[in-house]
Amino acid sequence: AQAGQAERSPATPAAAAMSFKPPPRRGRGMQSGARCWAPHHAKAFTEATVKEMLADGRVRVTPVDAEDGEPWECSPEELLPRAEVLECKANMDDLPELHMAGVLANVEELYGRQQPAKPGAGWSAIYTSVGPVLIAMNPFKPLPLYGREWASKFREAGNSGNLEWATKTLGPHCYGTVEQAFQGLRSVKHQSVIICGESGAGKTVTNRKMIEYLLDAEGGTGGAAADKRRIAEANALLEAFGNAKTVRNDNSSRFGKYSQLHFDGELKVRGFDIEPYLLEQSRIVVEPAGERNYHIFHQLVRSDLAAELGLEGGPKAFELTRAGADLRCVDGTAFDDAEDFKKQRETMENAGFAPDAQRPIFEAIAAVLHLGNVTIEGDTDTSKVSPDSAAPMSKACELLGLDPEVLSGALVRQRTAKYTKNLGVKEAMSQRDVVAKAVYSRVFNSVVDGINERLQQKGAQAAARGQEASLGLLDIFGFEDMPVNGLEQMYINLTNERIQFLFNTVMFERELAAYRREGVEAAFETPPSNLPCVDLFTAKHPPGVVKLLADQVNVNGKDGSHLVNILNGKLKDSDFYIVCLPKMMTEIMKAKRAKWPSVPTLRYDECFQIKHYAGEVVYTVRDFLAKSRDTLLPHLAEVLQGSTKPYVKELFEREMESGKLTVGEKFCRQLESLSDKLEQGGNVFVRCIKPNPKMIPGLVDRPLVLEQLVCGGVVAALEMRKYGFPDRMAYASFVKEFWILDFGMETKKTVPPRRHAEDLLKVFVGEAGQRYAFGDTKVFLRAGVLATLRAYVAFRSFYFAVMVQRRWRLKKHKKFIHAITVARERISAAVEGATEMGLAEVPEVAKAAASASGAVEGVWRALEEARERHGADTPRTATPKIAMDIAAHAKDEPRLRELVEKLEAAIKMVEARKAKWEELLARKLAQTRKEALAMVDRVEQMEVGCKAGGSGEGLPEHVQCVEACKLAHERLDAICRQDLPRLERDGPQGMDLSREPGGNEDPCPQARELLASAAELVAAANEKAQALGKVRFKFDQEASGLLSARDEALKRLEALQAETKEAILGGLDGVG
């Protein structure tokens, strides 16, 4: 969340796993021939086999995939065991080999699968789970995974108490996770969903989908529907004011937020509020390279209000939007800011902001844009607003309701009750930026406050009656380690450190506490707590980082090395604090420059290092004190409080009331308040994962994904869930749910519940020890045991139901009638399904459908005629008569069943053919994408050589080389981002479903043509690069000759110096 964020390059497996404590079995006992996962520089881990054990204790491994290279040596501790058959599980508790390599392979395998179009047709391609943790991979494309059909399935399962069954059947899903939290409100009145992940991982979309699900849960019309619309619009509204285009994401949240829905005693939505965290203020006055300012700035300068607000000229006319004016979306399309602004105004109105309430908001934002164009001139001691800036200053003050002369004077002077001090240019520009940031940040907070005021009323009424329940969604920024980590990164990582402590508490400490309370031996050891790392920042006595920063702000201390010396002196004894030394910084700079393309030089005396749960991070102390000040200087606050605009005046009227707390102190208060709230209720977690930095669908950057899985605590959670007892039930509840499995229930009514539970588990699961354990009041079960028992219950319940229904049908003479009805329904469903899938016209299906329909319709007509004849009779007397009338057709039942089965088999066979065609297409497109990306690498290498500088720059050959590389790169980018997704949507070409596809079938000839066209451009670029190389070689030869001649001339001149000196000493005139 800082200016100039750079793309993260793949980490090594060792770096990614820096916080992960591997299971005891890792790599030990490996023998020659053993299957294993071995570390790999590009894949993180790859399938391999132990080739031999070496004398020095190391091992030599052979990769299964020949493309992974020749056999190599490594330490046994780096290896992980590999199962003979790699199973893919949506619930990773069930993985047979549970470690980071297995998790990575499982996530990648699911991500590569085709997404089922309907619920129940298969697992989701992007969601997996472990316990209360949902893992969400960003698909970078729309998927048929949301909407009413999906939502209704999870909602029905939650209301009927079958959510676990739904999750097993439908697979993990964000709807299932939020439904779990919603159902938790019935027992604990506060629930939270904690959504974490790095920029571009999909947090914003996941948060939005969950809120939409909750708002749709109860339906409703009129006022209720209007309130729900406002809640939905409020979330979308904040995206315009708090989101921006970054190098990682077109719609990146630049603030954290806790969105809380309030429910009454009947769990109906009655209110909504949002609490924002750490808005990125540096972006307001500086657009980072390759990024844009907040969406609302770019929307406003291209809106229909631009002329009224003095914003003519578009984004390039304003300093705060100029750098991002021409940036496009990741997929190459342009931002439609004008249309987005129209939608934004509608969104604001739907959220409760009437047009007259919108106007002052837009005026204040326009004033910030004009302030950005105000320049200061002068020297280091005095300054003034440049005369050229009179127009933007005047317009900014007009919009803010201020006197231009008063504000101009306040920017270039610092005034107190005792003195007035002139400021230099740099200080005055800093004050200008402080005002701009203060105005925008308070506008942002006012929008949040306005949303909360409009949506909290009913929630407050419910709370007053003591009936309130609440469900919050925390959308929080992920852990960051950037080329330069400043104050923003420090608070982001502090937040993640605190959330990780909560995660550890939920996943580990609460498990252990439950075991201890029940007298059950724990299945794992308690991991080290990271709370001391949090205290290193937040402690007051002795002071932590935040308190030391505040002390320096209050005494107007110095930044940079002075502040680092204070931190080093006070915190050096902490186990989580590292003093930066020159040699250490040299190694750190090497590592950073190997990871990022551009890293500025960092001074050791301006840096300190922290041992976070996700690894060691270096923080650079530049402008820490300036950024820590959250209040305006008194004379600036006084100017803004004197505004003639009621809206602006209200923004700053509480300025003096806010006290002298720094940004860090206020943030720590917010963080602790949030932590208390989370710890008092139930929590589920969502870890959003960014599959690759280029945001290309279907591509998995394995090291990057592994780094996120490990740093997010997912792998550690899997280990705990696998070796713990995640499910537990009171003995009475267990017997109440599973009594139906016991044939001797009548004889066991007096048996104590624990004894009864022991008997049931012994019969249906086996002896105690491995799969379950008995506590004082509860039985503890391994993952999967409850599901197995419930499957037995469902089977037996179904058996009883079928037996009763069969006897009733036999008694009422309805068996054959039922069979006819079922056959007709099956045929209708089969034909409808075939039509939906485009299979109805295939000869095998059409023929089978005609035969089955013709046979069943004859019997159905006879049945309808019999019902008509006996319609006047009562059902009790009519049923036997109808059965007698159609008894002659009873012999046709086997034939009808056979025809129906043939129809279904024909559809299944043709559907399988279609799947093979689609699989051929998927493989073809994957190979095409792989070849295209390989060409991209070649072009990028040529571009580096072409742009490397040196001789020949500016020559026609150099220009031609640059242009050829650009054309090739643009064509390949279009193939990856536009053409291949389009071909995937279009489906296989020339697909003939009347036969099996052969081995030589080409489901997509156009892919070959695309590669050929790209190859021509790459070849042309290569030709231009070679021509440039020849020119450079010739130039270098000629230059070498000239340099040799120059050296000879210099030698001759040097030889004359001695003679010249003698002549001068001899008194000869004119020498020299």
UniProtKB/TrEMBL annotation:
Myosin motor domain span: 87-794
PROSITE patterns attached to this UniProt entry: MYOSIN_MOTOR (PS51456)
Positions with a binding annotation for ATP: 197-204
Swiss-Prot/TrEMBL keywords: Actin-binding, ATP-binding, Coiled coil, Motor protein, Myosin, Nucleotide-binding
The protein, known as: Myosin motor domain-containing protein
Any single Gene Ontology cellular-component annotation: myosin complex
Residues making up the signal peptide according to the UniProt record: none
Ranges in a coiled coil: 900-927
Classification of source organism: Eukaryota, Sar, Alveolata, Dinophyceae, Gonyaulacales
PANTHER family the record matches: DILUTE CLASS UNCONVENTIONAL MYOSIN, ISOFORM C, MYOSIN
Family classification: Belongs to the TRAFAC class myosin-kinesin ATPase superfamily. Myosin family.
Region spans: Disordered: 1-33, 983-1002
Gene3D superfamilies cross-referenced by the UniProt entry: 1.10.10.820, 1.20.5.4820, 1.20.58.530, Kinesin motor domain (3.40.850.10), Myosin VI head, motor domain, U50 subdomain (1.20.120.720)
Source species, domain of life: Eukaryota
One Pfam family per UniProt: Myosin_head
Positions of region (Actin-binding): 671-693
GO MF annotations in UniProt: actin filament binding; ATP binding; microfilament motor activity
InterPro entries in the record: Kinesin_motor_dom_sf, Myosin_head_motor_dom-like, P-loop_NTPase
Gene Ontology biological process terms in this record: actin filament organization
Species whose genome carries this gene: Alexandrium monilatum
